[in-house]
């Protein structure tokens, strides 16, 4: 296994765990001034410290798919369509039925499904498909750019992305501006280029120290800014939770670079070094875990939180939900992956 792919296994595994943390912690954000402050704060801390997971997933895609040998559009899209479209359609229908029958206990409606589907609002985690499909449509063009562009040119493009989304957009509450509206990237297209850049080119030890320091500051800033906004507005604000905010990107970049160098160094020191079986399995089934985990979190959440009533303190309840949700999702996906035809949905 190539070192580059080797450290990707670790990133995928921790990133999917981060997704479960975010989704287990999210309901507690609405408890501001409705429950004990420590309960709300615990949810905010867990959520803040896991926000990097989504940028890391997009960065992994960029690192693995960009700068490669060119292939025909037909071959590229055929491979991705087989992996994405069937799960996308199946789980959109599944979660729509789960939403109307199990949660709202109403009758299904094709018109309602159509409207929710077209607006990416069937279920809270399915937005990822829409972003991923849009990125795949652009990957062939970005691949040519990354294959032939110099490091300086790719770095310049990444810096523009960080400037417009990380500075101009995030700090528009200080100096109102609409500059990002005229930048031809979305918050996710920049992430795939960022992943390619960090994966392809080396970062000096001095630069890595700066990156790690920025990551720590980003983690603290996410927590502190979320608290500050809540106190100012007297209600929870997710402003600092944005995936393209400088604080979240700083965490994502720090983790990406850390695992790149830590795992590569371990491999160089020990040729027999490899991820453990559990970590490999979590990594290999991360896409399936992403698809099924909301179902299990929905089923177990009632034992931890009932509306505004918290049954188990989030400091303990969130990691327990993550462990249970991860275990059940991993078992389910592993079983489904062994069933002919059914395995195509995960």
From TrEMBL:
It is a multi-pass membrane protein. The keyword Membrane applies. Keywords: Cell membrane, Membrane, Transmembrane, Transmembrane helix. GO terms for molecular function: O-acetyltransferase activity. The chain crosses the membrane at residues 12-29, 49-67, 88-107, 127-146, 153-170, 182-198, 210-231, 243-263, 284-304, 316-336. Its main location: membrane. GO terms for biological process: enterobacterial common antigen biosynthetic process. It is found in: Cell membrane. Residues 7-336 form the Acyltransferase domain. One of its GO terms (cellular component) is plasma membrane. Belongs to the acyltransferase 3 family. This is Acyltransferase 3 domain-containing protein.
